Amino acid sequence: xxxxxxxxxxxxxxxxxSPALLHASPVSALAVSSSPPQTFRYTLxxxxxTPEQRLFYEENGFIVVKNLVSDADIERFRSAFERIxxxxxxxxxxxxxxDVAIAKxxxxxxxxxxxxxxxxxxxxxxxxxxxxPQILEYVECITGPNIMAMHTMLINKPPDAGxxxxxxxxxxxxxxxxxxxxxxxxxxxxxxxAISRQNGCLVVLPGTHTGTLxxxxxxxxxxxxxxxYHGVRDYDPQHPRVHLEMAKGDTVFxxxxxxxxxxxxxxxxxxxxxSCHYASADCFYIDVKGTTQENIEKExxxxxxxxxxxxxxxxxQDVWALRGRLVQGERTTL
Length: 334
Description:
This protein is an alpha+beta fold and 334 residues long. It is 25% helix and 22% strand. It has helices at residues 3-15, 19-24, 51-60, 71-85, 124-127, 133-143, 294-308, 316-323; strands at residues 27-28, 62-65, 95-98, 114-118, 147-157, 168-171, 179-180, 185-191, 202-204, 216-217, 231-232, 242-244, 251-254, 260-262, 271-280, 284-285, 325-328.
């Protein structure tokens, strides 16, 4: 067995640990080296993560925390999502995204299926997720004490209609973000129900967070691609991958350069997850002109111009500055 295959087997065995072991060490973090490095790059000194757990994130770019969010909280988020789908409430700035190929909605029969809510920061109930203390204590291990909630999503992967539009191309989240440093940005992604390979769990390429931001664009998929679902143009398809099968309430924290995506939902139900991208308030904005991120800036500006009737002078930085909300500490640079 190759070294890469051995490492992948270790990861898979670790994610399949027994509940007793998970109770003893609640973070999915396995030491894959006999001794920790002299310094840690991707995590900050803290009293929450053990050196072995920190090493797992350093080497792989993600950690899974079991049973972090309660059933009661998840049901409240689910109810808030339903009210929005039924148009019982109208949330300023909220973007309701619908699948390009699926006409059967979950709650409203004559509408296309809602595949995602984006920018729910003005909804008090959904935004409560971003400020959950048990989430923030892990986020702080990566961002430091001054924490901004920058990007919010509730993903509602619909049953695939046969055109494979429910899958999400492999990508790096940093492609969408005009702020740095990348190492002080992290996503928290919580399963709102049991998530498996059958209903389209996250797929990650461990260790790719140590690389650089790659060029992204829409993949040339037969059947179409949902709006804003850009994919990495150049990555090694033979790279070892891990399918993150998760129970309701499990949360994965991952680096914005980690290459990840998700497969089709082959079930009849909708697969829900809620997430927030956090950044240190000490991060700073960059100009993406002349970089691989120019295409996403152009697309975001076009959408903002149509929705808010603003002129072409708006920048990607302006859009993100509007989205960001302080959830802990002080708002400094961002």
